From TrEMBL:
This protein's record includes keyword Transferase: yes
Residue ranges occupied by any Histidine kinase domain in the UniProt entry: 119-212
Keywords: Kinase, Transferase
Official protein name in the record: Histidine kinase domain-containing protein
GO MF, any single term: protein dimerization activity
GO CC list: membrane
């Protein structure tokens, strides 16, 4: 499953790069050309149409950038896992209206690229679970270096569930992806802890070893 996830991520990154380099850059040039025409429009009506078209192209650029992030976060490769996580929580809050916060201890957290990708998608799945099932008002992601490990805590103040059932067979298909996350984390030598009770929110802790410096 982890190898498949990595292969999918590489393809998503390729597509995201193509869309950015071809589509967004072309749209940006269109906006520049329209802006130059606005100053020499022959009539107020023509100026109005140009302005509306310029606004529409700007909206398309913003929506395309959002789709690129959903495909593959550029920040994950450019600035690292922490920056990508922070942007993820900001976008989730804007999209779903739940208050998401991000905390990081600012300690170095060296990771191989493949591990970084898998962790990012695990956390993203956990946050999507919160929006779909938790009925939460607040959620938080915390990243902390502890000895030679990285601990990522995802918690919410939602309705919670019976965590003792996570290992049951039915959770393989109905466990909101938790079983899959646990298996992928185990593949890279990590482990997952879940604390939850009905009516008391949920806390999920992902732990994995950091790269030797």
């Amino acid at each position: 499953a982890s190898q498949l996830s990595l292969a999918e991520e590489r393809e998503r990154r390729r597509i995201a790069t193509e869309v950015h380099d071809r589509v967004i850059q072309s749209l940006a040039i269109c906006r520049m050309n329209l802006a130059s025409l606005l100053g020499s429009a022959p009539s107020a009506r023509f100026t109005k149409y140009l302005g509306e078209t310029n606004t529409l192209i700007k909206q398309i650029i913003n929506e395309t950038r959002s789709l690129i992030f959903e495909l593959s976060s550029p920040l994950l490769y450019e600035l690292g896992l922490e920056a990508a996580m922070e942007q993820l929580t900001e976008q989730m809050q804007e999209k779903y209206g739940i208050v998401f916060t991000f905390e990081d201890d600012r300690q170095p957290k060296p990771l191989d690229d493949d591990i970084r990708v898998l962790l990012f998608h695990m956390v993203r799945e956990l946050l999507i679970n919160i929006t779909k099932h938790a009925q939460a008002c607040h959620a938080r992601v915390r990243m902390k270096r502890q000895d030679g490990d990285l601990r990522i805590t995802v918690e919410d103040d939602g309705v919670g569930f019976d965590a003792s059932q996570v290992n049951a067979d039915k959770w393989r298909t109905k466990g909101f992806g938790l079983f899959s996350i646990r298996e992928r984390l185990h593949y890279i030598g990590g482990h997952m802890e879940i604390e939850s009770k009905r009516g008391n929110g949920t806390q999920v802790i992902l732990t994995t070893s950091l790269k030797q410096e």
